[in-house]
Specification:
By secondary structure, this protein is α/β, with parallel strands linked by helices. It is built from 18 helices and 13 strands.
Length: 418
């Protein structure tokens, strides 16, 4: 028998999304009433436009919002055009760099592109809506804000929040600007409640202090109970946060990362993470996930292929997922150079270190040299032994040469003179 009344929370528990809730029973009752009446609950996920794309590390709360919408509820995606000008101190050890107006505007568009891959936007009752907190902060009066909002907060309470306490314990400076961040995010929550009837914030567990600042402000100033619902920070079996590959972010937007590389990230997930990732990063039904989760040894590779395809289908669409899948089969199972591999133009005489650096397989020539000594870099499937090697005409077969880093990263070099 299900522990909760609401469809949404039951899904969150079953799939491993649920970490913490400000009032578990109250939130469950609120959602159940909405689901029973057929009236969408409204919940939001916020992201400051400090970059022009989300990455895999952001997907967990975004998938939560996707399921929220699947349950008939309305998602709001808040872009922090105002709060990005300050910077969230949560998990940070120094002040964010300030961004120009043009950069913030471009980043906001990039974030909407990321959100749109997981949510349906439109004018329907349960369609997602994009909002920007710059709309209510741009003309705000500082003294009015201090009087109306600042009086609802206790400095003692703020100092107990992890985002503040950790910085102080490390004796790392925190500006008064950053100290104000939780007031602004709390005000966001209340504005969304007033304007859109939003009573839930969905986020990662690192946002707990900011969420609580909003629920407390709602209770003190507007006499309403707002709810916070968080996901755990997803890690692999070694305790490392998921979302990085070879030290680089696994970007959601296609102009930042190819569909093939996105597919390969999930294809190369560790065996111990397959079941967890199927639950979180795909829409597959739980019966199928439980079946795949029982596969062992060589059979688990089939589960990894399904995980990679399903995760890529959500993020990049089915056509791109099929292309990435085909490229992987050609490269790893048929011994061919898949057409969707990362590509680079180079000419005869190009240095091998430059080639690996430019295609993005290494971050420095020093790293390339170390990998060569470990037989970790290959040209046309043969280990490179000379760090000073330069491409020759014989390396190009039908105008292309294949390069590889280890067993899982491959690319094509096109002769730019052909």
């Amino acid at each position: 028998m299900s522990r909760f009344k609401s469809q949404f929370i039951n899904i969150m528990v079953e799939r491993g999304f649920y970490n913490q809730c400000t009032n578990e029973q109250g939130f469950d009752e609120y959602l159940y009433e909405c689901e029973t009446r057929g009236t969408p609950a409204v919940g939001y996920l916020g992201s400051d436009p400090t970059g022009d794309s989300l990455h895999v590390g952001h997907i967990v709360p975004l998938m939560m919002l996707r399921w929220f919408q699947k349950c008939g509820h309305k998602p709001l995606t808040l872009v922090g055009g105002a709060t990005a000008r300050i910077g969230d101190p949560s998990g940070k050890d120094k002040l964010r760099p300030f961004l120009s107006e043009e950069t913030l505007a471009a980043n906001a568009q990039g974030l909407k592109k990321s959100f749109s891959k997981f949510l349906k936007y439109g004018s329907g009752a349960a369609d997602a809506l994009m909002v920007d907190n710059w709309e209510w902060f741009k003309d705000i009066n500082y003294l009015t804000f201090l009087r109306d909002v600042g009086t609802c907060y206790s400095v003692n309470r703020m100092l107990s929040m992890d985002s503040v306490k950790t910085r102080l314990e490390r004796e790392q400076p925190m500006s008064f600007l950053e100290f104000n961040y939780m007031l602004l995010q709390g005000y966001d929550f209340c504005q969304l409640y007033q304007q859109y009837g939003c009573r839930a914030q969905i986020a990662g567990s690192d946002q707990w202090g900011n969420i609580v600042s909003g629920t407390e402000l709602g209770r003190r100033k507007y006499d309403v109970e707002l709810f916070g619902f968080t996901s755990p920070i997803i890690t692999d079996s070694s305790g490392k946060k998921m979302g990085k590959s070879e030290g680089n972010a696994v970007w959601i937007n296609e102009d930042k990362l190819s569909a093939y590389d996105y597919y390969q990230y999930f294809r190369n997930i560790g065996d111990a993470e397959v079941g967890k990732c199927l639950r979180i990063y795909t829409d597959l039904p739980m019966d199928e996930i439980r079946r795949l989760d029982t596969l062992k040894d060589q059979e688990i590779n089939e589960a990894k292929k399904i995980l990679a395809f399903e995760a890529t289908k959500i993020c990049r669409g089915e056509t791109e997922a099929l292309k990435a899948q085909q490229t992987a089969v050609q490269t790893f199972e048929q011994g061919l150079a898949g057409t969707d591999l990362p590509q680079l133009k180079a000419s005869v005489g190009s240095g091998i270190l430059d080639v690996f650096l430019q295609i993005g397989f290494v971050e420095s020539k020093g790293e390339a040299r170390r990998l060569i000594k470990q037989s970790g870099l290959k040209l046309n499937d043969k280990p490179i032994t000379d760090e000073n090697y330069r491409l020759t005409a014989a390396d190009f077969i039908d105008g292309q040469a294949k390069i590889s880093q280890g067993k899982k990263k491959h690319g094509l070099i096109n002769n730019d003179k052909v």
